[in-house]
């Protein structure tokens, strides 16, 4: 009887040990799933960022080579795909500016201020440049 009682005590200890091991495995599994989800999210964000960087380089090349219409088309597509990305708006504003479409450039820069107010120091300088050029191109009154 004594050996049966000690055997039952040992089985109960083993049962609790298995419960704790199972709980530990469950916690580790949950941590693993959370880790995998975060890694996948970072990879997607990195891929999107890389794609945006490549698009920015492509647009800079188009603008530097004077292909303003192609740059405007590409920048318009980029703004459509990523409307919250300031670089896309910058590229579109530069393309409009190179094409002499100053009103459109100004409109894009004002829109950029709404989505990225932290860009105000750069946008203000460009808006001033566009305004200056806009006022120089206006017809002068005839006396």
Put the structure in a nutshell.
The chain is mainly alpha-helical and 143 residues long.
- Give the SSE order as H and E letters: HHHHH
Main β-sheet description? none
Subunit arrangement of the protein: single chain
Give Rg in angstroms: 31 Å
What proportion strand? under 5%
- The counted number of beta strands is 0
**Poorly predicted ranges:** none
Mean pLDDT: 85
Structural class: mainly alpha
Total of DSSP H or I helical runs spanning 4+ residues: 5
Identify the overall geometry: rod-shaped
How far apart are the first and last residues' alpha carbons, in Å? 123 Å
| Residues in helix, % | over 70%
In words, what does this structure look like?
The chain is mainly alpha-helical and 143 residues long. It contains five helices and no strands. Helix 1 (2-64) packs antiparallel against helix 2. It is rod-shaped and about 125 Å long. The chain starts with a helix and ends in a 6-residue tail after the last helix.
